[in-house]
Write a structure and sequence with these properties.
By secondary structure, the protein is mainly α. The protein has one domain. 75% of the residues lie in helices and 0% in strands. It is built from 5 helices and no strands. The radius of gyration is 20 Å and the shape is globular. The termini are far apart.
Length: 204
Amino acid sequence: MGTASPLVWTAWIIGGTAIVVFFLARYLLPVAEVIDWVNEQIGKVCDWLILLACVVSAGNAMVRYAYDTSSNAWLEIQWYMFAVIVMFGAAYTLKKNEHVRVDIIYVILKERGQLWIDIMGTLLFLLPACVLLTWLSWPFFMQSFNVLEHSSNAGGLLRWPIKLVLPVGFALVALQGISELIKRVATVEGLKVAVETKYERPLQ
């Protein structure tokens, strides 16, 4: 796969998405609702995975110090869960507008200005990055899947399932980006849509 190929296809996908959304935003709101619901449910699962990851991590530590032994499978389960939490939780975090921003003027703008920053940022940065990363990470997964890659550690887990998390995670963020784009364009057009524009800077 040549370098130009994914870049060209990414440009076509983003351009087509922009045209469709700007002309049909009000009719695409049900699509945005479905995307929101899916990522909301995935986010709830990730909430519980955080607790489970903490329990597994604590259990691994206690077994290691109490019995001077450990299991590669359980150690790998820890970072498998962490990978799922990060990659699948990213779309839910985007829905809640809680990703950390390098904020210069966003918080001082009125809502309409914030909406336009979100729209342009989604079209110019978020969607191109997610589409490109989904495209590029798919062969990475397929290469692992084709050989049924297994951990090199004794007693470790299969590797290929966790590599699927990369393209799926980026695709979920891209879908949520499309949902946010639809909602923001519809709001700019004057429709009453629930859009999360409130953003608080992280504590310094």
